[in-house]
Amino acid sequence: MREVPGFLAGSTGGFVEVARRTNQRKKRLTAALFGAVLALLAISSTGVANADEIGTDEYEYVFSGNVKYNSQPLEDVLVKLEGNGYDAEVETDAEGKWKIGVPEKAEYTITIDESTLPTGVIVADDDASGASKKAEFGLTKNKSVNFFLGQGVRETTSLLDQIGERVVNGLNFGLMLALAAIGVSLVFGTTGLSNFAHSEMVTFGALAALTLGGTAYFGWPMLVAIPIAVLLSAAFGLGLDVVLWRPLRRKGIGIVQLMIVSIGLSLALRYIFAYFYPGGTQQLPGSGAGKIELFGSISLTWIDIASMATSIVVLAAVAFWLLKTRVGKATRAISDNASLAAASGIDVDRVVRYVWILGAALAGLSGILWAYFRPGVKWDMGTGILLLIFAAVTLGGLGTAFGALVGSLVVGMLVEVSTLIIPSDLKYVGALVVLILVLLVRPQGILGRRERIG
Amino acid sequence: MDWFQILNNTAAFIIAPETIAYALAAIGLSVHFGFTGLLNFGQAGFMALGAYGYAISILSFGLPWWVGIIIGILAAVIFAILLGIPTLRLRADYLAIVTIAAAEILRLLFTTQVFDEYTNSADGLGNYHAGFRAANPLQFEGTAGFGPWVYNANDWWVRVFGILLVVVAALIVFLLMRSPWGRVLKGIREDEDAVRALGKNVFAYKMQSLIIGGVFGALGGVVLALPSAVTPSVYVTSLTFFLYTILLLGGAATIFGPIVGSVIFWVLSAFISNVLPQLLEADLLPFMTDVQVPAVRFILVGIALMLIVIFRPQGIFGNKKELTFVK
Q: Which of A8, A245, A267 to mutate to test the interface with B (most CBs of B within 10 A)?
């Protein structure tokens, strides 16, 4: 789960940050009263960069600006910069000036914290979206970014709106998790294997989409690249079953042994991905699209909407497959009792093969969608959500596909909504604690049956 | 190609602190998995508790170094009890998922900004060496040793101390496993219900096993922390998987298996990381670049783990009759 920072970039909880800032402002007020020396002390004790320049010594690319309202410079306005995995914040000096050095010549988002502006003053810049502006360097290493300030009433996000936003994000994330979790659950149900290499199937889908659609590689249109990437994932699942899992089943290897084999496979595949796609996070084409305002404060990119729609349609199709088709029914029969299913004439081996193909295709699709959500593709991205997938599957009841769906939605919501209360770098902890508590109280999960715990 | 240098660097890993630390943690895992059949996938968490317990006691509370080690051990004992209560009654793979989740929770807690004051978050801790080095009985100037093993007094002290711990740990496990208590553990591994039918409290035995193995894990974490620093990114799930590779390589239900496994693991990976860059420099690997080198050894670890489990599950020293994969 080393990818946590990148994954959080789009969804840092506003709650904690706001609290910290008001605290800081209180400290500043006292500081003004007790003179310059105390001011320095108070500022250094807050531990937040409070100079008018930051990063200008380390980095050669520098953004600068001058914050003025009616030609009067504004002091102590908080300016935040974010982008390319880097973030910094700085406060304006007595002349309203600020400077931020950045590591790379790239596009960054610069935001003025409106709560630090005088009452009644807001960012009223036509080029800015809200209080943020995107900025890029031209031919030089310096770029000045200024905001036009005007009178107005500040738009604040109420707690209710924040919850709404988190719930929608959580739903999106939960649906993605569900796609991956159904594969884990079906494989466990039919073969008894807790597949640790499932995370690599997730990564595989994202990497396949990147290779086919990424501008640095084949550069096919994404509408073609994504379906082919999902097909490749399905083929990958089939290949793994033919080469590895079926021979091992034939050999009659125990489930604990199989589990450790899947761990070895996970390590090997992950570093094979690292071998061919070394380096940092790469973006799929089309990620970072603009947001569309929906009802209330909820705004989503069209990719978010398409992603949720895709997940829902695919999940519905899987449900139909499980409930209505012959193979789907056979799958559930095997999950219930493999020997009985085999005795009543079901070709267990063939069904398990379908399960691997389906599971891998769903995992690949989930990887592609997740690459848009995080955002980015990296060789170890799947490892970051493996435990969340396991948490979802266990929560819903090991081996039941519909349990995996319910569990995923709960885990997705929990991860996103919990950031309102806990710091965002601990957001996975909530889901993992719930996993342990569920096993303590109801080991068979929400939809599982008692007999499964053994 | 400088073969002398390659072999020198490789041989140094026979007694490197990493080798010793992994051996200790793998001994702990052999108690869990090899002798009791417990699928503990959270050994990285026990190691993290040892390392952080040691470093935080010294840095934040100013305790002597040996008290730091005891606190690391106590933290592991408490962690084992907390983990064991809900999970030891459940099936093996549930224990695996819970322990892996618990170890991740610990790592996230050590990484978060919230406890920055104590853990220094993602940057980790350092500069807690004064007490341990002052207790060094080997006082000499400059370096000493022979062949590839030439170190200064501090580095020797870390190695000697670590090797002593490994010897003591191996001796304890040896004595425990030939005692009646150890035979009950093996009985639980083979058939839990049969042992229960004999009137033994299986849960209590499993808990004792979890605690003892966890303490060895914590000592491994301490040894890993002794020479340099503690960083949270070390204690990831992969660390536990490497320990399983080591354990299965040597033989899960053996005394020397974990130690030999760790030496083989580190010597081979040091050899690969030393020989590949040189082959690259000599243009012998046209299909590979610098950035790809680190990945190769992990690919090999993964493949090795699969092959061992499939073809020689008893490991190098193991006895085929004493397989740990019963169910």
A: A267
